[in-house]
Write a structure and sequence with these properties.
99 residues; mainly alpha; 4 helices
Length: 99
């Protein structure tokens, strides 16, 4: 199995794990795994969409206007953009998963 195929297999396994985490576990268990995968994988937009799904499942609308919806989603987007910026500035020679 080539390196590219191994990388995609690992990524698909993380996608399956996210799907299970969204429906079976609370957000505070899924959050560190999503943050780790956004840092570990290149352009891991699946983690951002998992964060959006978690936000929409746990948001309880109220009569007062609040900004709680999307906190996890916007944090995941910010983390993804910061990691992307950091990876472009840092040379990561030899670590194929991060490149």
């Amino acid at each position: 199995m080539s390196f590219f195929a191994k990388k995609n297999t690992i990524r698909i396994l993380f996608d399956i794990i996210f799907f299970l985490f969204i429906f079976l576990l609370p957000w505070y268990v899924a959050a560190p795994v999503i943050a780790f995968s956004i840092i570990f994988f290149n352009n891991f937009w699946e983690g951002v969409f998992a964060a959006l799904a978690i936000d929409s499942f746990y948001y309880m609308p109220s009569n007062s206007p609040d900004l709680r919806f999307g906190i996890f989603f916007f944090s995941a987007v910010l983390l993804l953009l910061l990691v992307k910026l950091a990876k472009s500035k840092i040379r990561l020679g030899g670590l194929g998963v991060l490149n």
